[in-house]
Amino acid sequence: MATSSYCATANGAELFTHYASNSRLIGFNSRNRSSKLFLTRTSDFRGVKRCFHVKSVSSEPKQKVQDPVTEEGAESVLSSFAPDAASVASSIRYHAEFTPLFSPERFELPKAFFATAQSVLDSLLINWNATYDFYEKMNLKQAYYLSMEFLQGRALLNAIGNLELTGSYAEALKNLGHNLENVVSQEPDAALGNGGLGRLASCFLDSLATLNYPAWGYGLRYKYGLFKQQITKDGQEELAEDWLELGSPWEIVRNDVSYPIKFYGKVTTGSDGKKYWIGGEDIKAVAYDVPIPGYKTKTTINLRLWSTQVPSADFDLSAFNSGEHTKACEAQANAEKICYILYPGDGSVEGKILRLKQQYTLCSASLQDIIARFERRSGDRIKWEEFPEKVAVQMNDTHPTLCIPELMRILIDLKGLSWKEAWNITKRTVAYTNHTVLPEALEKWSYELMEKLLPRHVEIIQMIDEELVHEIVSKYGSLELDKLEEKLAAMRILENFDIPSSVADLFTKPERLVDADTETVEVSDKVEVVTNDEEDKNEEDDTGKKTSLKPEPGAKDIDKKTTVVPEPAVIPPKMVRMANLCVVGGHAVNGVAEIHSEIVKEEVFNEFYELWPEKFQNKTNGVTPRRWIRFCNPPLSSIITKWTGTEDWVLNTEKLAELQQFVDNEDLQIEWREAKRSNKIKAVSFLKEKTGYSVIPDAMFDIQVKRIHEYKRQLLNIFGIVYRYKKMKEMTAAERKAKYVPRVCIFGGKAFATYVQAKRIVKFITDVGATINHDPEIGDLLKVIFVPDYNVSVAELLIPASDLSEHISTAGMEASGTSNMKFAMNGCIQIGTLDGANVEIREEVGEENFFLFGAQAHEIAGLRKERAEGKFVPDERFEEVKEFVRSGAFGSYNYDDLIGSLEGNEGFGRADYFLVGKDFPSYIECQEKVDEAYRDQKRWTKMSILNTAGSSKFSSDRTIREYAKDIWNIEPVKLP
């Protein structure tokens, strides 16, 4: 046994582990699951010198490592360990010295953050390993959540909160000369997501761990994220995220967990009749694991992120030594760039290939890992028919669609199952969450590109498509031929493809004969020109055979003057429709809000719903109350706990409804307003630091923070602000003060780098803000602020400070939304349309506590038709705003293209597709009601309390329970 001794001076490291007042043996799990450290404390830490004797047990293969669940060891340590501030401080000092990422001279904030995080990870590792081992031994059915995004936010505060160690860490850091809040602020947000899709995934992981469900998340480890947003005089500028520049203390690379990924190549059939995918480009995906702790539970589940690389053998040493450095590194560069950024621009073929590589890497590596785990847990008795009884795979939107053909490929080509067996397993294993009704977001891929990159998968997709065609024909074969063709056109996975030969005879139409009375004849599209002078001319058909264009005997000549020269046929591209593949290959399809799920059934996938109604479900989104009330809003959390008499609401948000009985209590109202104001004061300091603008906390904080997109209608919001500003300018100071309450209008969100119109909107918002914020006549009565680089950490500060939040998308276009739930939980009143989860929020908080405006979803199609027919008459106030913008009131930038999108009756990028002009009058009139309500602070506070009370049903805990019961068929299992 190897033994080492570490000695440190009095101000050096003190090792964090469990120790009793006179104990001498300290044990804890190291970050390598195969080893433990046992350290003997030889002094009482009060002497000048401390010595730790470390015995490495990893070098003793015969020594049995104690089981963390059933044997004494880590579990016994865990059950008895209740670290106080002194123990935590010792841990932090230890990591500052013995897990160094910074030079030893100083203990400044960045170093303090890493040392603190590493000390927290020590605690998490015990639970993490115990959870992992428990699942292995119990061989439970496990859910796997595959998502291209996980918008985690900062992990430190969440982790110590879930471990119930916030007080200990705050005191320990104070004793070490630092403030917990300042240390927490050093952590960069993990750049693994962008919008609600990724934040939902992260809320789900929190709830899965908290509720003790056996589950893992799978994603990609993006080196540079989406982008870091800077706001300049030219609007939005993009820079690479630097979140990994100093490393991440939370991730652990699993060098022993990697899987091969193949691209390109070709498919051959072996002498055994099996398919083999050979040649091409080979890379490997390496696992990086991140612990996800539950709240007040030992369960700590895993988020496994894949990073891509190639073996060292692929480095061309000869080329490098010859001076061809780029060539030598080409294979490594091609592999690594797959995980460089989230959503690489797909305006080029190269960009499309890279996106498809990302999606396949996620699916292939994750499924190989899942299958390896299934085989390991099965031992010597692998029964593939039991795979769906042990595995549930949830596809978060269409990005992981390739799970379906990839699972089929592995089962058929590598595991030797028949097509029927593999298809039955796949359909019982995989489920699909739809997040959009926007046509452009229902992914399609070029068949040609996919065939080149993933040839075997295209073969499998073709077979799935053909099987679907047979099922449709079997179900609807009695329909008229034209209607059957419409069904197939809507439902097939392969778009713009011929009918499979196996059913082609059903669709053969009789040839039309020459009409002797009118002396006309059907002319094939292949004929470019047919004249009497060319009767003897021959040409080749598609098979290379010669075909005569000379009329059949008995047919009348076609007059040369009436010859038709058809336009060259436009051949639509062949596409693979990923959403259709998801519906066909999955056993469940769910929308994420009641109205969205109805639209999915009635419009988006109506034909599929008629064929398989049992597949379709609703699972309204939810958000974790831990991060979005308990940890981000301590003042409000304390009030809720005081007035409900318990902290149970953190795990059972139904308790929030009990606030309703105290809504008229003046003491509660006073406390409620004080909590809101304290949060606003923090936000004031933040806004000053980030933007340079000063605002007052007594103004109404009116906030719209989300992805910048035309359907989310930030343009409607800023046009309303422009209208407000124009009217203010036309009034005297006294009139302004009498009519308007002070407002701080806050925007945040990223426009995708290639989304030109969205970037114009960002530029316009910042220009309006620059004008209004420097207008001395307006002063504090109106401020407009765009917060750069909006992320989870910014949301955690702004949402508790909000008074009014804007969820104003065109009705029927927002699947659900989750920020609306976070705002409601924090007592923020909403102005919005009947869209997404707004519908359910309004029902829960009460119609009188929600500011509703705008057209409803069932009216949208008719309103667009009205516009196309030229019948729409814009409101004069809307026209007034447009002219005001064109006048140059907000600078010299030419906004003709932006405003032009709202004009005309038809055409791409015109005709106000998102109905900004239609809803504008209703919106500004509703904003007048907002002003009126805010003047009555007692009424406003009551509305705020009822919003928090009414958000009791929007916890992700409720959502996860529904997924577990209705889709995954898994049960919560608490560690012993």
From TrEMBL:
Its EC number is 2.4.1.1. Keywords: Allosteric enzyme, Amyloplast, Carbohydrate metabolism, Chloroplast, Glycosyltransferase, Plastid, Pyridoxal phosphate, Transferase, Transit peptide. It comes from the Eukaryota. GO terms for cellular component: amyloplast; chloroplast; cytoplasm. Transmembrane segments: none annotated. Its cofactor is pyridoxal 5'-phosphate. PROSITE patterns: PHOSPHORYLASE. It is found in: Plastid, Amyloplast; Plastid, Chloroplast. The keyword NADP does not apply. Pfam families: Phosphorylase. InterPro entries: Glycg_phsphrylas (IPR011833), Glyco_trans_35 (IPR000811), Pyridoxal_P_attach_site (IPR035090). PANTHER family: ALPHA-GLUCAN PHOSPHORYLASE 1 (PTHR11468:SF28), GLYCOGEN PHOSPHORYLASE (PTHR11468). NCBIfam families: P_ylase. Belongs to the glycogen phosphorylase family. Allosteric enzyme that catalyzes the rate-limiting step in glycogen catabolism, the phosphorolytic cleavage of glycogen to produce glucose-1-phosphate, and plays a central role in maintaining cellular and organismal glucose homeostasis. Phosphorylase is an important allosteric enzyme in carbohydrate metabolism. Enzymes from different sources differ in their regulatory mechanisms and in their natural substrates. However, all known phosphorylases share catalytic and structural properties. This is Alpha-1,4 glucan phosphorylase. It comes from Nicotiana tabacum. The gene is LOC107810306.
